[in-house]
Predict the 3D structure of the following.
Amino acid sequence: MPQENNTAGGPGPFEVVLIVFEFLAFLLKATVNYVVAIVQLFISPAAVDVNGDIVLITGAGHGMGKCLSFQYAALGATVICVDVNEKTNSETVAEIKLKGGNAFGFTCDVTNREQIFDVIKRIKEQVGVVTILVNNAGIMPTHPLLQQSEQEIKKTFDINVLAHFWLLQAVLPDMLTRDRGHIVALSSIAGLAGFNNLVPYCGTKFAVRGIMEAMSEELRADPRKPSIKFTTIFPYMVDTGLCQRPYTRFPNLMKMVKPEEAAAAIIDAQRRGLVEASVPKYLLYLNTFMRIFPLKTGQELGNFLDTGLKSDL
């Protein structure tokens, strides 16, 4: 006769004891993790050496991508500069080589999946396997949603979101094979809170955060237990020309970040293996703290700080 299913009657005594022990184990692990997180607020993990790593940076032809390329090269990494603009990308490569660094340039439209896979194949053949990927490329149309065209919204998502999928699919297989790799993705403070005149942009940056969290969970559930690391960065407004009409009530407290400073903070977060980091550092903690309170409290803080971007139209 088939064995009766005891599920309808609830768990038996042994299962209850097991559940209690599992819950107590969870509480113990949660306490340890909490203490470790508090300690790491004041004592960061040691920074790993990136000398010899092959670092692919998208949007390397200008702004923060260019600064990231210079600084990784100065640390001894081989830098793969990728940008849709061949001229500015070549200039970045030339400047790195002039300073004695090691860099290679590849022109690529990151919205084109076929181009990405072709470029990754050529990088592997000509340079080697990418060990650190920095998804930096992005655009930021700054005006009300009802004034944004269909083409503009689609392009924002193509560059800011879909390109992440194509690059992950292109580089992860080799990282998994070698059990080594680090993915860095540029979200934004606009990926933590909504801002006026940035509805599609905020949508893309919230999406980047979700992609990184879900990808990390997916690999955590992988029976191979791969040693691939993920770091999501949430910069405030960086003075690269992307933020064209910023405003703030407290310019000394909420001033625009210099691209060189932002790049240094991003690299430091990657080298220390941080899962998340904001630039400046305190904004991530402030956002986490404010999420405890009702939404209107956060809105009132936003009114008090009075910071954002004016429409570029």
About this structure: The beta strands are 54-58, 78-83, 102-107, 132-135, 181-186, 228-235, 246-247, 276-279, 308-309. Residues 1-6 have pLDDT under 50 and may be disordered. The radius of gyration is 22 Å. Residues 48-309 form a domain with the Rossmann fold fold (CATH 3.40.50.720).
